[in-house]
Amino acid sequence: MLAFALAVGRAQLSTRIPPGAAAQFMVPQPAVDNSPPENILATAEFDPPVVRPGEKTFYRVTITATENSIKWPDKIPAPPELRLGAVARGQLTQPDGMPFHPVSGFVYEITALALGHFVVSNFVVQVGGSSVEVPPASVDVDGHGVTLPARKLSLEVSETNLFFGQPFRVRVILPAAPGNQIEALRDVQFNGDALLADRLATRRSVETVNRGGQLMPAFIFETAATPLVTGRLNISAQGFTAGSEFGGPVVISGPVMFPSGPPKYVLLVSDWVGLNVRPLPSEGQRPGFTGAIGKFLADRPQLSTNRIHVGEPVHLKFAFHGQGDLTRFVPPELPRTSDWQVIADNPPDNGFTLIPLTDEIQATPAIPFSCFDPSAAKYVDLTIPSLPVTVVGEDLPLQLAASDDEAGSAAPLKLSGLALMPGKTVASLKPLQLRGWFVGVQLVPVMVFFALWQWDRRRRFLEAHPEIVRRRQARRALRYERRQLKIAVEAGDSAAFVSHAADAMRIAVAPQYPANPVALVGGDVLAQFDDAARHGPAGVTVRKIFAAADEQFSIGAKGRADLLALHFEVDAVLLELEEKL
Residue 554 in 3-state DSSP? Predict the structure, then answer.
């Protein structure tokens, strides 16, 4: 549902003609290449080139020149077996560097009446006073062959039974080319009498549509249009295929494929769609109708205060919501009154200021307004009701502004009594934003964010290198075991000394494999030394420690006090293993 905020009627918007109803948007055009006649190319083709009797095909001619420079003949040399329809023509400028190169297209809808091979022979057209030859093109009318459908646009409208000035939605659909490739549609135009298309309400999208019971992607150009005459209207659409040159934002739903390579500009047309446009009924028209057509609802008007002085301004605002075209919504006209002076507020306030001119006023003026509901075919009253106000003279005391509680707003303004206790004290009246520490406080979120970013960066690095974590844990466990060794030596506990010494060696070499330290044996520790160390004092110490550790599991094992003398050799072995972590 749309919303459009309005205020009490503006004098400059009091016209009954929707603003912009006959306006066209003018944009600066790029420089166009005016090539000499010998560089102008003309092509002709039938789409499709093979049809059955009674089927339709399109005869297309493309000329690389501006449309207004081409003098197209009233009749082309076509065989009588081919019935020609009206010609459709269009032009675009292809962005091939600067200047742009123009491309003009001419399309005939042709119905084949008999079997055979038919040729539209070559003919000459005048382009800027020079002659350009259009090459011949042929079509085969076969009663038994396999034919392909002609490529054309589909035109869909939201409603075909309309009222004069009623906006409606128009959809131009370009189904996917063979291979489900989506092409853009450029320079879309609507052919017909007195139809105004709103170029500001366009929407381009790629959606899945149902064509002949088959789902396929399609490029959809959607906009709003308004009929400007009554009676029976016929409209059609035309546009150029432009490959992947969409020329604006496009909403894509689902997977699609786009053609590669340069675009091929082909002028496509749609079938004609009939519209029945009825005039607005004169019976039942209510006051204040400014051309608003649709379903609209009015919100409750809002008044800035309901108690004012003579000559004191008061602001009045109200809003409308609806399903119609609010871009062409015209505000209601203000009634002329001698009791109020009305001034339009400057944008973006979107309101009006009412100034009472006498103290006899008891309410704001009612504002007649109405709209036409096309679904019910009748006028709907949307009059803004008058609101009660109290206007006081200059000799009365100033009153409070109006609030939800009107009884409370009647009390006059006055000062309160003295406070019994002093309020809060401050060291300075300088605003917090101007104090030195305020900048540091603003930097705290940045510093926290930076710290979190560094932490996450370190976490991701350790996830990618788990060996760093294993070595760190091994160094921490090794330091613990060395402390336990020192305690065992001081206590003279040889059994604890041997156990902690063996555990420390296993922990020191576990990250090298990697493996659980409990699963390692003396041979795994010796494998971390070179040959000289393995047969030297370090190797002898490792063998003695693990041999003594294995003896502890035998029956009747007793601790050997002489192993405590190896604590210096064990420290040397552990230091060497720790350096490899």
Answer: coil
- Provide the token pair at 204: 């381009």
pLDDT in tens, 176-195: 877 778 888 888 888 877 78
Task: From 78, 67, 133, 135, select the one nearest 104 (Cα to Cα).
Answer: 67
Q: Looking at the domain covering 37-141, what would its CATH class be?
A: mainly beta
Q: What is the dihedral of CA 30, 87, 271, 257, to 10 degrees?
A: -40
CATH topology of domain 297-410: Immunoglobulin-like (2.60.40)
What lies within 8 Å, CB to CB, of 507 at 6+ separation is 474, 477, 478, 481, 517
Look at the pTM and tell me if it is higher than 0.85. Answer: no
**Block residue for tokens 């065992």:** 488
Q: Which CATH architecture has domain 154-278?
A: Sandwich (2.60)
pLDDT digits (tens, 9 = 90+) for 406-429: 444 455 666 666 777 887 888 888
Q: Whose CA is closest to 1, among 248, 206, 234, 294?
A: 294
Residues 481, 504: contact at Cβ < 8 Å? yes
Q: Distance between CA 253 and CA 330 in Å, rounded? A: 36
Contacts of 32 (CB under 8 A, 6+ apart): 66, 93, 99, 100, 101, 102
Identify the residue whose tokens are 């959607």: 222
Q: How far is CA 433 from the centre of its chain?
A: 37
